[in-house]
Amino acid sequence: EPTVRTELMEQIPPIAIFLQESRPNFPTAFFEYLMPIVVRYLTDVNNQVRKAGQEALLILLEQDLVAQSDIENKVCPILLDLSAPDSDDEYKVEAVNIICKMASMLSRTTVEHMLLPRFCELCSDGKLFQVRKICAANFGDICNAVGQEATERLLIPKFFELCSDSVWGMRKACAECFMAVSYTTSPEVRRSKLSPLFISLISDTCRWVRQAAFQSLGPFISTFANPSSAGLYIREDGTLSIRPSAQDVNSSSCQPNNVTLMSPSANA
């Protein structure tokens, strides 16, 4: 029964945490018995079972309970198969969604070598706009996961494609994550490539795209500031924050010590 398998998936994370805390007594139980079930249920025929399996996997990754070898040898290959060009549409949409969500939880090397090439392919998926939409909405997180070099070499060309996509929702999603993408690049790329690209979004024919771009204008401009002098930085939760200077900290002013500005990508 699918309901039984779904309930089982919901119990996997607390069982895994218990086994981790009692590892001397159960050194291999999780890797031998539970992890194979989670991986298998990612391809279950029932939608609710797959969703429960995906949620369980993300919790396990967030809690750092999955070994690096299992990630590279079991989880990533399944996701690559599910997101292949000839994969079922529903499976592909689910796979790209979980790839984007888990990118921030994996090592940079794993993401860049195993998942980034497929993500770049999915950004150009001409069959399913839902796939491109997920890529666009999570573009900033992928850039942050792989760093500046891979972003400028592989991701910026794909970002240009998505910013000129025929579907306005794609362009709107790009406008919303523009600050996060810009923050990952060098000042020269921001000035020479991203600035003209942002102007195209702020002049878009669709008012929803223009509105999203105007909302991202301030955060985008902030990425041009020198972090050492302006104190601007991006938190892990996607918020743009201002770190107080030493002079402000030592002063007796009643001004707040820290100001947090929400980036559009944090609300996406």
TrEMBL record:
One GO CC annotation: cytoplasm
PROSITE patterns attached to this UniProt entry: HEAT_REPEAT (PS50077)
HEAT repeats: 115-154
Cited Pfam families: HEAT (PF02985)
Organism domain of life: Eukaryota
Keyword vocabulary terms for this entry: Repeat
Keyword Repeat: yes
Single annotated GO MF: protein phosphatase regulator activity
SUPFAM superfamilies reported for this sequence: ARM repeat (SSF48371)
Full protein name: PP4R1 phosphatase
Source organism per UniProt: Oxyruncus cristatus
